[in-house]
Amino acid sequence: MAERAQQPPAKRLCCRPGYNATCRQGQRVGGTPCGGSAATQGGSSKSQCPESLLDIAARKVAEKWPFQRVEERFERIPEPVQRRIVYWSFPRSEREICMYSSFNTGGEEIGSSGENSDETRLPFRRGIALLESGCVDNVLQVGFHLSGTVREPATSSEPELVCSVSVSFDRCKITAVTCGCGNKDIFYCAHVVALSLYRVRKPEQVKLHLPISETLFQMNRDQLQKFVQYLITVHHTEVLPTAQKLADEILSQNSAINQVHGAPDPTAGASVDDDNCWHLDEEQVQEQVKLFLSQGGYHGSGKQLNLLFSKVREMLKMRDSNGARMLTLITEQFMGDPRLALWRQQGTTMTDKYRQLWDELGALWMCIVLNPHCKPEQKTFWLRQLRRWNSVDVCPLEDGNHGSDVFPSTSMPARYSLTRPHRTVFTRAIEACDLHWQDPHLQRLLISKRSRGVKLTRLCFFSAAFPTEHVPTACARVDALRSHGYPKEALRLAIAIVNTLRRQQQKQLEFFRTHKKELLPKGITSVTNMEGWVGHPLDPIGTLFSTLMETGRGNEEGNPLFPVHCFLEEGESFVSLAVETALIGLGQQRVMPDGLYAQEKVCRNEEQLLAKLQEVDLDDMLVKIFRKQAVFLLEAGPYSGLGELLYRESVPMHTFAKYLFTSLLPHDAELAYKIALRAMRLPVLESTAPSGDLSRPHHIVSVVPNRYPRWFTLSHIESQQCELASTMLTAAKGDARKLETVLESIQKNIHSSSHIFKLAQDAFKIATLMDSLPDITLLKVSLELGLQVMRMTLSTLNWRRREMVRWLVTCATEVGVFALDSIMQSWFTLFTPTEATSIVATTVMSNSTIVRLHLDCHQQENLANSARTLALQCAMKDPQNCALSALTLCEKDHIAFETAYQIVLDAAATGMSYTQLFTIARYMEHRGYPMRAYKLATLAMTHLNLSYNQDTHPAINDVLWACALSHSLGKNELAAVIPLVVKSVKCATVLSDILRRCTLTTPGMVALHSRRNSGKLMSLDKAPLRQLLDATIGAYINTTHSRLTHISPRHYSEFIEFLSKARETFLMAHDGHIQFTQFIDNLKQLYKGKKKLMMLVRERFG
């Protein structure tokens, strides 16, 4: 708390004109102990004397009446009466002092202030430590003012600190504090706490004086002059200028000070017009909130703001008017956050945590305006404030914010945008200002007691006279009652609402059973509950659940808040009511709201509620409730999210059903499976919503239809659907009938290939656990799901496709040889030709697969025949990518190999590239078929084209290999390939390399059957080398002219080296020297403008 450096001015003027000099003499003597005699201290003595009537009356007056009103009411107040009123006016409870000096009452949560994790560092705890260590001295109470000094012991890093502390109080509330420590915080510092607790715990040790004005009334003129002169002497440096100024004004007849009757007294207590509230430093509240907001969620600012909201709720529960005051200050800072306008301008969304803070802000205002005992003028003031905030453009909307998540595109229907209500986070609080608590039926609920033959559990919230208020608003009343410290009334109302929900549920069930034949054929086109209870801004189900569970836990821990028999039927408990309420709310069929935030909130609130339910241990009574609610949910038709009639855009039940399934499975497996299978539906992904239950399985590619609004959480919803299916698969292990049913449900309702693949993997893992034999039924389910994934992703792009194919082969291997043979027989519906040959068939024919399956020779041959047939079919369909794999797979079968080779030859002319043909040609050479390799290489050469500047082309090595192969086969083969080389290759360096290699050895030196020829080298003057030589020289000439067209000086040296290589090639001809000289002379003549380059040419070549 930012304490002021000096005492604030007095709140009222004090004068006692009824007293004269004679009656004042000797009537009031200050300085007696604060507590007075033992008999007058209200039972503080050990003798346990009955409290006096004076003390009883003084205490009541001190709590309710401002002291000015007491003075005005009675002409003369006896001094003992004044003294007892002043005594009882100081707070007697430590709870409020703790509330204003720590985030949590009593410091229950260690480190709740965020930065400090040590409980002893909280101001309240530090104040207690200072008090108990005797650091509080010079405590003095003068009227309604308490002062003293608090000594802070020295530490290793800080010297001893002595702080002067003063506290003003009125009607048992501290109204102002001052401390010399200079601490700036929202809460009281430890020194204020220490002094206040000293007065609470040791009132008898505090000397009590009447207000200073009363003491001054007892003095005559000489005494007053002496008093003033001594005061000025002691504090002359501080007060002398002020004293002289006041003296001048008093001596001036026309001064303002002489126009006022009486004089201020800071110790005289409150005036009639003063608000009676605890001291709250508004400036520090505003500064702290602004600081937390500026940190944007970093440094734990979100946690700090939530703690401030908790402090507001704590104040409301204590019925402290500062709760609304503090929330007003917080709201003003939130509305002034500059990021709101920035986000609005940029069209971006606020962060999720920040949006949750706004939700809590709206909920708190709802609690405040629903205060059952607030005055009309207070509600009018709050309504005016709320409307002002609500009218600001940047005020966040209730179901999202001003970003792009609510209205994603121009596809939004125009009528929707025109009729869409502008509901901000304050709209519900504004609407709640019209609510009241005077309804007779509501009053009977709040004050009813158990009477003979009538129990509260049979009372319902709605009546004929009070029919229109919907459940979330009714639950907001419960939250308001709890927040304002009316737990018994809140519990009564909560139970009445739960009974109403039960009755409504029963009526809905009866209605659907009566009209089932009419409704089922029609299907359903609209949902009965447009505003769901889970994910609702007012959180009705969460409120009911918390109210009932807190009462139930209190009873279990031996601290019952209320007698159970006054509220419950026999066999019921608050916990069972809370659980049943949660099940009713979670099972409600409700429409998916618009906008990203609203949809995420639905998921988040559902998960939070389920997390609370999972903390409850199920006993026999709760299992009975689960069974009852499960039957209701299955049979309630359009009113239930698990009914037979499901609206296309209803919130899915997957997460809730998974909880029900796991809870019911040990007690009623059939019912558990009915719930889970019914919840598997996801009609928003269907082209038309189904009107009945599970039917024949079908396969649908995952496509979300064009629709408005968008489902932003669809991926999360599909993952939850997958989790539900996985849970059922795990539980159904060993039960073939249930596994088949679950499989049908998965195939019908799940439309995401990645999720089906995950389920297939999960089933495979469960079926092949190391500590047990494989479950063949579950393995077949896994395989069937894998086959569905293959079909779904066959014609779509999926980055996990290769992983899926490999996994499927592994799964089929575990199932058995018949499964492998089956997927190879129907490969065209499952795999691409490349996948079928490179992954499926290759894996099937590997040694590891044969060993794993323990196959005999006959089975191996049959499997190999299937693989070869697959390979040939794939090669026919996609020779470019499958020919080599087909040849490899058919190596051990001559007929199949020849067939594959013929497929390659047939496709070589048009359907295959030179790279593919070269690769197969090299494979043929490696397998010992050089002539076939030669033929494929010549076919590849016909598809190749190397230009003059492609001297680093990847096909160069293939060309060199083809020429080497032809050279090794003989002169005829070489003669046949050289024309192809000349036609396809225009790069001079490549041609010269081929020419040089052909002249080094004799053709056919490594020919077929290892036959050797005569060993005579081929002549460059005769075919075919003459043709190659001429082509090489021509390529050098053309390349030279091409280079000289755009040559730069930095490439001159490189060009000279190129000419040197060209000369080597020219000289291989018998007249090469003459040709090269003519070539150089021609260059000098054509490019004489490039003087520097031609000079270099002359230097090197003459």
Automatic annotation (TrEMBL):
This protein's GO CC annotations: Cul2-RING ubiquitin ligase complex
Keyword field contains Zinc-finger: yes
GO molecular function, one term: zinc ion binding
The keyword Methyltransferase belongs to this UniProt entry's keyword annotation: no
Keywords for the protein's UniProt record, in alphabetical order: Metal-binding, Zinc, Zinc-finger
Annotated ZSWIM4-8 C-terminal domain residues: 916-1093
The name this protein goes by in its record: Zinc finger SWIM-type containing 6
Name of the gene this protein is made from: ZSWIM6
